[in-house]
Predict the 3D structure of the following.
Amino acid sequence: RPSLDEIKAVWQNYTGSSIVRQLPSAPKHPVIYIDAPDRPQPRRDRMTGNGMSTVIGRLRLWTLMDGGVQFVAQAHNTIRGAAGGSILNAELLVVKGYLEGLRLEESIHE
């Protein structure tokens, strides 16, 4: 099983797929780990990455399950979960050619 430090490293280095990183609505860092005992908190972290990033914290071993871990993940329900997520999906559909007649900036297609 991976150590807690290995899990943190994966989260901290996660950038998403190369095509999604280029989309206008995509956050620079889709997953952000905060190593603090009281984070994430909705009031403090909901607008991280303009509301499009997921903030993770409080990673610890789960004593009730051998090899398990516990953590808290927080994302903005409206921005990331509904409106922003839908916009990001639409941008991806345009770039992949599923929505004909629509274009995003040419720099995205490079």
Notes: The beta strands are 31-34, 54-62, 68-74. The chain has a mean pLDDT of 91.
